[in-house]
Amino acid sequence: MYKIYLYEHDVVHDELALPRPKSYINEKHHTSEKLLVRKIDMRLLPILGALYAISLVDRVNVANARVAGMEEDLRLDVGSRYTTALLVFFIAHIFFGLPSNILLCKVGTANWLAFIAFAWGTVMLGQGFVTSYQALAVCRAILGFCGAGRTSPSFDQLGSSEICEGLFPGCVYLVSCWYVRYEVQKRLAAFYLFSVNVGGISNVLAFGLMKMEGIGGMRGWQWIFIIEGFAIQVIAIAAWFIIIDFPDKAHKKGFLTKNDADFIERRIQEDRGDAVPDALTWRVFGKHLLDLKLWAFALMFMSTVTPAYAFAYFTPIIVRSMGYSAGVANLLSAPPVFVAVFSAFSFAWLGDRYRTRAPVIAAQAIICFAGLMITAYHKHNTIRYLGIFLGSAGCQGNIPAVLAYQSNNIRCQSKRSVGTALQMGFGAIGGIIASSAFREVDAPRYLNGLWATAGLQLLVLVLLGGTTFAFTRANRKLARGTLQQPIEGLEGFKYTI
């Protein structure tokens, strides 16, 4: 049990007591608080979106480059070369996650995220100069290392922990540390969908860069990598100056006053009681892994990112198979992305507005399933193209939705670390599924790949049904006072359905 004290008319846990700045007392919905949150939005979300756009641009431009001539020059149409070039990225992504996270703990969040972003841009630029399939595969394996995003806990003999993040989970974790539960999905959607939007623009940019064919003796597909790689290097340099770490450190960099930083920590503490890091030991790590809902969230994330990877890697190829030229195929790959951004943010707004998660995830999984089936089976190419719009909208919107679903229903920073590790690891498995399910022998319709990704949407619905049943049952017991122990160890905490 916690001791309770009163401070400025507020009830707080004594060991976690953070005085509410007088300017914000009893002003949870006051303009001052909203302005502070908006200030954080403007500083944090754009740079996180720009950073994560780096990995999304890579998903898009490797497909753009393929239809722009890289396939013929590097003979990617031989056997399963293209699939292999995609797979090596995810294999490296999984195996180098731990070393990446250890380095991050030693050098700091801003330093490491900026460094791996710059390295990513350098390798991407280097892909513009490869002359063989083998060299391309090596470059993509190095990219897998740069983007290693598996969250791993770091243990020491004192039992304390640091939350170690790679590129994407680092961004997700930063967002969860700055906002309360029912602000999270909109913010996750904002930074992620900003990245997706950049990916859509990349399709249009690729169409223009293809027109540089022959300049400097380079092919159009080479210019796609060179120009976009250089742009990423510029973003990485800017990120080093802009990125802020966590609320408790923000005032040290002059971004917030000490009072404002304390207030941000306090509102998070009042919302979910985990503003202060808890110790993460091997015993606690093993205990968290026994929580079945973490595995359910991870499987949902895997099932959601699989079609997202598939559309990124294969949309230009599928569109080209409809009879369009390579340039037009790249151009037509952009509109589904832009529509997905609008749809996904609309669903995110509804989820936060009505404080619900499961209905949003279910609706988007159904939309994704319908889109995949239309693309797979409809006889008219125009309608098949419409299916790409629906499929992209559903899966892209569910990525921040599933992340928010987990974020809202677990507590303690140690459990967030383990849960994010599990989600990101399964996300990499989703990339492997997308790369291997869409086989060259199935081109150009890729029925097996489309069915594999569609089947995973059904898995999302099954898992969602299970978690909804379990969460609803626990909430009802809490309401009746028959629950044997508090949900997630905190009195009054309820699951978000």
Structural topology:
Elements: E1 4-7, E2 10-13, H1 31-74, H2 81-95, H3 97-107, H4 109-127, H5 133-146, E3 152-155, E4 161-164, H6 167-178, H7 181-210, H8 220-242, H9 247-250, H10 258-272, H11 282-289, H12 292-320, H13 326-332, H14 335-353, H15 358-377, H16 381-409, H17 413-437, H18 447-480
Antiparallel strand pairs: 1-2, 3-4
Helix pairs in contact: 1-4, 1-6, 1-7, 1-8, 1-12, 2-5, 2-17, 3-4, 4-5, 4-8, 7-8, 7-13, 7-14, 7-16, 11-17, 12-13, 12-16, 12-17, 12-18, 14-16, 15-16, 15-18, 17-18
Q: Could you say how many structural domains there are in total?
A: 1
Main β-sheet: number of strands, strand sense, barrel status? 2 strands, antiparallel
Low-pLDDT stretches: 1-29, 149-166
- Say what the CATH topology is: Growth Hormone, Chain: A
Number of strands: 4
Q: Write the CATH architecture name.
A: Up-down Bundle
Helix count from the secondary structure assignment: 18
- Given the C-alpha coordinates, what overall shape results? globular
Helix residue percentage: over 70%
Describe the structure.
The chain has 18 helices and 4 strands. The protein is globular, with a radius of gyration of 23 Å. The protein is mainly α and 497 residues long. The longest helix is centred in the N-terminal third of the chain and has 44 residues, at 31-74. The protein has a single domain (29-486), classed as MFS general substrate transporter like domains (Growth Hormone, Chain: A), CATH 1.20.1250.20. Helix 1 packs parallel to helix 4 (109-127) and helix 15 runs antiparallel to helix 18. A two-stranded antiparallel ribbon has the order 1-2. Keywords: Membrane, Transmembrane, Transmembrane helix, Transport. One of its GO terms (cellular component) is membrane.
